[in-house]
Amino acid sequence: QYGAEDAGGVGYVPPGWSFWYALEKNSKYYNYTLSVNGKARRHGENYSVDYLTDVLANMSLDFLEYKSNFEPFFMMISTPAPHSPWTPAPQYTKSFQNVSAPRNSNFNIHGKNKHWLIRQAKTPMTNSSIQFLDDAYRKRWQTLLSVDDLVEKLVKKLELNGELDNTYIFYTSDNGFHTGQFSLPIDKRQLYEFDIKVPLLVRGPGIKPNQTNKMLVANIDLGPTILDIAGYDLNKTQMDGMSLLPLLRGDKNVTWRSDFLVEYQGEGYNGSDPTCPGLGPGVTHCFPDCVCEDSYNNTYACVRTLSTSWDLQYCEFDDREVFVEVYNLTADPHQINNIAKTIDQEILEKMNYRLMMLQSCSGATCRTPGVFDPGYRFDPRLMFSNHGVRARRFSAQSL
């Protein structure tokens, strides 16, 4: 986390930033320390001057007001909302009183045929767990109302400055979140759609309003897109992602990916989680009724493939079970049925092969589908020994 002493403390400002305002550690709304261009600034619990989402908004407005020496400019704002402890601004504490978490078909059911971490969740959930996750869902929405205010203020400021029409604005998030799916109360660390899918809204020059593009894009595409906007030659980089500009501008002839990589490295306590000592070492983020949201062997890699006939997700876990999960999201959008044992063997082989290629690629080679070796045979007993790149690649990216 930023601000740790072994990483330079709050005095460290990464190269390339003209203005740097950064939260020490993570996820605070009050009572925190900011690094303001390398100088520590302590904030308390007075809403009018300390509520972090609003503080970031005001700092951003100040930058837009006094940035005359920085043209063109790049500004990135990362708010604490909607992370826990989900502290809304005072004026929003009564909002969404009748809202509860969605009750989709995968809500509060047993995660049968899934990785052991999902299977260990208690079904049905206790009333206290359901009440907790509904409350968290409402509070997350409440905190996002302040983010809405931030966005509105920035857009109006850009308009007032006469810069709105030549400024690109990207609105997105770093991960999804689950609230009761497969009886997991709340968290974000699983391979399923509700945890890996994020919003991405973009406006800017040459982008037609009110359009939706359903091509496969990922957070690794944001860096190449920003460099492309700046006029940098992407062929000089080793970035795995692709520039979104052709898609955003409606280029009908653009060649685009049909699959993408999802990776996660599980976390756990070396000892027992203090909430659930009876479960032994290796788990973490456990609820009082001992439903744990993560473990060391919740380490997985997936390939998601989209075609005109199907939307498939193939995942492998790096654990003793050599566990595999496969979902046809066209027929099963809530990923209830793991079809790893029933899907055609040739499809398994192709997706396993493609996963290995995506894990070992770099730069431009990640943007092409590659050619399947017809002599390749999938053997789940050997899949991790075959993936020699796995240990080196897991920390490279995660959705």
UniProtKB/TrEMBL annotation:
Listed Gene3D superfamilies: Alkaline Phosphatase, subunit A (3.40.720.10)
InterPro entries: Alkaline_phosphatase_core_sf (IPR017850), GlcNAc_6-SO4ase (IPR012251), Sulfatase_N (IPR000917)
CDD domains referenced in this protein's UniProt entry, alphabetically: G6S
The Sulfatase N-terminal domain, residue ranges: 21-232
Domain of life: Eukaryota
Cofactor list: Ca(2+)
Sample GO molecular function, one term: glycosaminoglycan binding
Family to which the UniProt record says this protein belongs: Belongs to the sulfatase family.
Protein name: GNS sulfatase
Lineage: Eukaryota, Metazoa, Chordata, Craniata, Vertebrata
